[in-house]
């Protein structure tokens, strides 16, 4: 690959874009999609060729080799190469759950390893696009090699606006929030302009602001470092978050909103949902398409789809509380339960035994699977609602599909997203900090029945705006073209 890139350099000018994702699937997926889009931008770039290098941790790369066909991916995208660096942890380290604190501590010290990767590259970097929460090391390396740094925010604009204020919150002792203090959780946030009319509460701040989270100081340090980037790329669209995007411009002179990234293409856009499927889809998890046959047997709009994302590890009693709520709602459900997502609390059963019990008790009422092609599931006519952890990728995919949500956030930006869905955009219900079968039952019934008509007006409006934004001449399509022009302008 290095030799090929060297030959490209000899034959003409090259824009070499280097990517640094945060090593978690929810962050890697949008960054891979952006890399794909830039790799397809040859026609837009004229005589300048665009080469892509994606730098992953060795642990992440090994997962890619197991769960995806990287050889085929690179054959399809010959101008994309993958390089790796060690994250300082042994291969068997879990990196999530109880191992997360050690994981983020290790990520604070990866700058020397990144430096070695930059030294190994035959083609000098034109620009460095780093995940916003990998900024400390990215800034250090970008400054040493005198490479323009662009920050990619894989979360929404509202979260970004809040994140930019959190260093001051920390200095003034406003965070961390004591999660056992209901009065504190229900206190309005008055220090951040633009949130007043929506009664943002302290419980709506990012989850790492809570006392049980270990990531607070790490994330806030990354946000401070990200302010040194020369531009900000956000996976959102103008029509959804224009007021917040405008406010962020006081921190960044260049902002490119290019979402929903999962359905953005440089080729001619169509109304066929399959046209935006990326070859990176499902690249970190094997998708089980058999659930689509089960959905085919269900009535239109009758199914509640349930998924808590790729990282959550929840106590077994939480799963059973949700199970009771789903069963009592009387609605068929498709529920994603990853084998490693169950944390057994009774000390008797294993996670596999808990999962087997859930599957057995769900027969005839719902289907439990380990993973699904989520975009296809949300687009299926049988799906009427999404009970979600409100990760930003899932939220955008639901908006694009026109599916209302029940939001049960678990960590990070999910708490902000849940507030936005329920109270700002009014395209779902905010169920944060509740795990009660009676509440779950009522919200499922309301979403698929009694309150569906009133909520679908907003759902359909934002669905149409999302789809228009990624069409030729849509706001996100234009901003992607502007981003490409900006990168080309950095070539000496």
TrEMBL record:
Keywords: Glycosyltransferase, Transferase. The keyword Glycosyltransferase applies. InterPro entries: UDP_glucos_trans, UDP_glycos_trans_CS. Its EC number is 2.4.1.-. It comes from the Eukaryota. It holds the Pfam family UDPGT. Transmembrane segments: none annotated. GO terms for molecular function: quercetin 3-O-glucosyltransferase activity; quercetin 7-O-glucosyltransferase activity. SUPFAM superfamilies: UDP-Glycosyltransferase/glycogen phosphorylase. The keyword Lipid metabolism does not apply. Belongs to the UDP-glycosyltransferase family. PANTHER family: GLUCOSYL/GLUCURONOSYL TRANSFERASES (PTHR11926), GLYCOSYLTRANSFERASE (PTHR11926:SF1392). This is Glycosyltransferase. It comes from Corchorus capsularis.
């Amino acid at each position: 690959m290095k030799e090929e890139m060297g030959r490209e350099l000899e034959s003409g000018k090259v824009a070499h874009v280097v990517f640094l994702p945060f090593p978690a699937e929810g962050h890697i997926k949008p960054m891979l999609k952006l890399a794909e889009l830039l790799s397809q931008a040859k026609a837009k770039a004229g005589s300048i060729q665009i080469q892509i290098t994606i730098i992953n941790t060795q642990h992440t790369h090994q997962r890619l080799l197991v769960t995806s066909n990287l050889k085929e991916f690179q054959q399809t995208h010959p101008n994309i190469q993958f390089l790796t660096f060690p994250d300082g942890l042994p291969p068997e380290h879990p990196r999530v759950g109880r191992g997360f604190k050690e994981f983020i501590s290790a990520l604070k010290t990866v700058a020397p390893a990144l430096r070695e990767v930059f030294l190994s590259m035959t083609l000098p970097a034109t620009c460095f696009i780093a995940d916003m929460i990998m900024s400390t090391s990215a800034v250090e390396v970008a400054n040493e090699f005198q490479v323009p740094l662009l920050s990619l925010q894989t979360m929404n604009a509202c979260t970004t606006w809040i994140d930019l204020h959190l260093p001051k919150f920390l200095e003034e002792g406003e965070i961390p929030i004591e999660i056992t203090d209901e009065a504190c959780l229900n206190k309005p946030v008055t220090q951040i302009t633009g949130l007043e009319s929506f009664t943002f509460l302290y419980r709506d701040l990012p989850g790492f602001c809570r006392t049980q989270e270990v990531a607070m100081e790490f994330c806030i340090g990354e946000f401070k470092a990200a302010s040194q980037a020369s531009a900000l790329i956000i996976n959102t669209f103008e029509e959804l978050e224009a007021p917040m995007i405008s406010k962020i411009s006081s921190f960044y002179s260049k902002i490119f909103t290019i979402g929903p990234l999962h359905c953005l293409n440089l080729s001619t856009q169509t109304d066929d949902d399959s046209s935006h499927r990326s070859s990176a889809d499902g690249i970190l998890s094997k998708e089980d398409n058999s659930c689509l046959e089960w959905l085919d047997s269900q009535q239109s709009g009758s199914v509640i789809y349930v998924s808590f994302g790729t990282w959550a590890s929840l106590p077994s009693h939480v799963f059973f509380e949700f199970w009771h709520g789903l069963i009592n709602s009387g609605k068929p459900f498709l529920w994603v339960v990853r084998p490693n997502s169950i944390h057994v609390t009774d000390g008797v059963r294993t996670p596999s035994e808990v999962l087997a019990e859930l599957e057995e008790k769900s027969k005839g009422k719902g289907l439990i699977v380990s993973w699904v092609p989520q975009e296809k599931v949300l687009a299926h006519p049988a799906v009427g609602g999404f009970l979600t952890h409100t990760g930003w990728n899932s939220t955008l995919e639901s908006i694009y599909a026109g599916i209302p949500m029940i939001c049960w956030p678990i960590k990070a930006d999910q708490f902000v997203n849940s507030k936005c869905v329920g109270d700002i955009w009014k395209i779902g219900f905010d169920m944060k900090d509740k795990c009660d079968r009676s509440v779950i039952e009522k919200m499922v019934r309301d979403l698929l029945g009694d309150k569906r008509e009133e909520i679908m007006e907003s759902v359909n409006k934002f669905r149409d705006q999302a789809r228009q934004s990624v069409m030729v001449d849509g706001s996100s399509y234009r901003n992607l073209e502007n981003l490409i022009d900006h990168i080309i302008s950095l070539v000496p």
